[in-house]
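Example 3.2
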Amino acid sequence: MTMLTPRTPTKLAPPGKGRRERKAAELESRTRLAGERLAGFSARPGASVLQELSATRSGLTHAEAALRLERHGANTVAHERAPLWWVQLAKAFRNPFIAVLVFLAAVMWWQDPSDPGVVILSVMVGISGLLRFWQEFRSGRAAEALKKLVTTTCAVQRRAGSGSAPTTFEVPMDRVVPGDVVKLAAGDLIPADLRLITSKDLMVSQAALSGESLPVAKADTRSEDLGLGVPPAERGGESTDPVEADNLCLMGTSVTSGTATGVVVATGADTYFGSMAGSLVGERPQTNFDNGVRKVSFLLIRFMLVMVPVVFAINGLTKGDWDEAFLFGIAVAVGLTPEMLPMVVSANLARGAVAMSQRKVVVKRLNAIQNLGAMDVLCTDKTGTLTEDRIVLDRYLDVHGNEDDEVLEYGYLNSHFQTGLKNLMDQAVINRVDEAEEVVVDARFSMVDEIPFDFARRRMSVVLDRNSIVGELGRPEHVMITKGAVEEVLDLCTHMRDRGERVELTGRLRSHVTRIAEDNNRQGLRVLAVATRTMDTPRETYSVADEEQLTLVGFLAFLDPPKADAARALQALADKGVAVKVVTGDNDLVAARVCADVGLDVGRVVLGTETDALDDTALRALAARTTVFAKVNPVQKARIVRALQADGHTVGFLGDGINDAAALRDADVGISVDTAVDIAKESADIILLEKDLTVLEQGVIQGRTTFGNTIKYIKMTASSNFGNVFSVLVASAFIPFQPMLAIMLLVQNLVYDIAQLATPWDRMDEEYLRKPRNWDAKGIGRFMVCIGPISSIFDIAMFVIMWNVFGADSEAHQALFQSGWFIEGLLSQTLIVHMIRTRKIPFIQSRASWPVMVMTVLAVLTGLYLPFSPLAASLGFVALPASYFPWLIGVLLAYCMLTQLLKTLYIRRFGTWL
């Protein structure tokens, strides 16, 4: 027995590379090997393929099919499954800053198990992780619910035994095995990779695999074997791209018209689709958000590692109480830490996801919200995303390229009267004609005979009888109408119809009409020729031999039209600083036409084969200046995305096909639609439930708002905390007692942080939303160092006031000193939020949202109340004299004015604020 198709190797990636590079190399190796194996099946005669597979045209026996199913496994491809809930829960807490908070809580518990700070930090960590888990868990379940199989069975021909007659059964797709004979009809999803053994008028949509907008003709013989198309020698050898093979139908594609029978040559992971899917599962690459959070987290940790030991040493040396110095050092670490950061980030992202869900968008991964806002390049597939993924008749032209209703009429007659399955172009012609005209046509003509389409002729003809209303009374008049590929129809034409006259088709006129067709082809249109012949001797039957001496009437030109909102959506993205690049598997002419229609500056179209000849550095330069990439395979798409990322861009990818899955996964944010193939939806971070591209602009704005509120909290809190710690450092060196008790620091931090819970509901200035925003750890560090010490100036001013004006200059009066600084510190922290949240003048040019205003008032009232409350004694506070408050107001006003002045200087110097 001949061995069946070998399984695809599990690992093919070269060693010594990063995980992302290994995945890319593995994907390229798998698809190349699958393509070479399928090219071998395509090149051999059908009988030879059947023999190699130990199969027959009658199909396998049930026993043979069962054995092969056991040997090869189910006909399924690898796909991402939602993680178990407890795994997803654990991942929600995987964050460097959460690790710091857990460490601080553990140290505080070791020092004093009853310390309320332990509970506070634990609650913050718990809420942050649970919020992220719940939102992603719900979104994951919603995405799973979107998966809808078009069909779950296929027609397979099998036999009860070796001598039995074949019978056609409906078999679940996952039970199909190599060697099975599958019958295909219009609407069927191709269940596996097939080598055709019979076919009739077969048209297959390969958009999901190749990006081609129009269906392609398939047959059981190759075009080059029939003397059609470009010979392999002129193409540079045999093609190993199975998508281009005329006699192969691949898993994931679908039949639009016609019928066929094919033998299964590969299933599951061994299919061309499966070779791609196997490399698209597992850990996802780090995105812009992941890298940004990590950098910011480690920046804050470095500040902590520097400041805390210094405070501990100064306190221990000046006070002599090292236990108290250690406790105060831990309190400073907590004070320096924006402990609400994980929770605020999660709340921001969750709020963004909820807002997007109201626009019928499922956010599968919360981080994608921020990545959408940071996106400055959107790579998009064409078919089904920018276009409607349907065929329309765009124009009907006479031999001079002018629109002519007579051409439409003859095209309609051909499509309307053919008795076979109508393909998408026939349907497009019929849809162009009004119903009233259809009734008139039916009255004027009746069917005599037809010459069906076949793959070798690439045309079909109908012969109609002109009824007596339009023909000579009593004498039948038969007219043949032929429609098909331009070259094939032109070869049969001896005349053409020119302004109502039948003229001879001379060599010069033949060149003229050929140029008309080519001009439309260059505009990205699929062109068919229409020709007629009035039969000299009417009869009942006609044959291919009668397709001669035709008169060319004109041309029908088809396209997959752009979506109505595509141009508006892309312009809106451009206005928001997002460059759009089209990366499609369709041909360059079609791609250029669609891109021009939606308002993109096309420039030079780069083909996928050109990118293969470039190293990564050259590809980065090419990707930066190119708007449209065409005839791009899945590996090339993903490589283009990575090249743009390597050039410093945050890249989004919008696609819905199998060939988009790798790029969707590698992009910082992958976007798909609910009608996409399952693997595209699994690879995407965001799924649009409605094909409304304008929602992308809303998503970008939501992402930038989410990021703005997150960075706002980080800068406000980190700079304020840094200023407080700097003040503690100064106070520890010159004051003979603790400037603030550890419990006071914790309470101050808690009140301030609770007030910041309203941050996700704040609004962002319109100017901030106009361009992409990205993480800048260096900028945050600079902001902390430049803006943080401003508060220290007024903290020190309050130290001086408390020491000299209110006599809090000894350990006996330290409670008064600590209470005074507590109120000033908390109120300055809370009010400065309004100074930092905008680059404008607060309260006048830019106002915070009402939740932020309410929380500010509550925090201020809480700070003022605590030293006078029943809790004062247990917290170490004493009541402050009334004369303290005018000083407090003066300090706070001076603080706000100086901050506004320095904000103006900072923006002038660095050109940025948030």
